[in-house]
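thread: overnight batch results

M.L. [08:02]
morning all. the overnight job finished for the chain we discussed friday. pasting input first so we're all looking at the same thing
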Amino acid sequence: MDDLWLYAGQLLEGAWVTVQLALSSLVVGLALGLVLAAGGLSGRTLLRRAVRLCTGLLRGIPEFLIVLVCYFGLSNLINNHFDGAVEISPFAAGVFALSIVFAAYASEVFRGSFAAIPRGQIEAAQAFGLTSTQTFFAVRLPQAWRIALPSLGNLWQSLLKDTSLVSVVGLEDLLKKSNMAAQAMHQPFLFFLAAAAVYFVFLHASQPVFAWLERRAGRGFEARAA
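M.L. [08:03]
and the structure it wrote out:
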């Protein structure tokens, strides 16, 4: 146990990197997910098919492989087409890889959520003179967000655990720091168990946050239902 306290500072540093990586990927992934959902609902057949092909490919490829492609593949691709050496940081590659994977799944969640909104509400908003943009932000997005939140909470949990994959490209996150300490002290069970406990705490600490978001998003709807 003394060895664990000796490396506690490094483990906390790694845990903070993990949180930053997960939150950054969440924000970017949500934005990309909305864009892909809009494309998937587009009236243009070519765009709709292209989006569904893209999201289908991303969901069908292991996340670990996507991380490797984004870190090693993109660096090689950029350096082969541009003068000078360009190095993609493990953090940037991790955010990009995890964001596009999250977006691929989130887009399907958003697409289903938008499709679940009764058509009559859209027509009523148009009858009141709201523009398409006003209808989207005042009517469609709040309802889609409320419907999507439970599924997005599940995707967040998967995203948080998938951050551990980025350690393979050198990011000194929680898993990487734990592995370094385990090798230095020859106690893999102790340090990997500590890392597992931290991931467990992060996951369960996020559950009340999503529960609060769900209550907040559903306040007006619950009042109307009553």
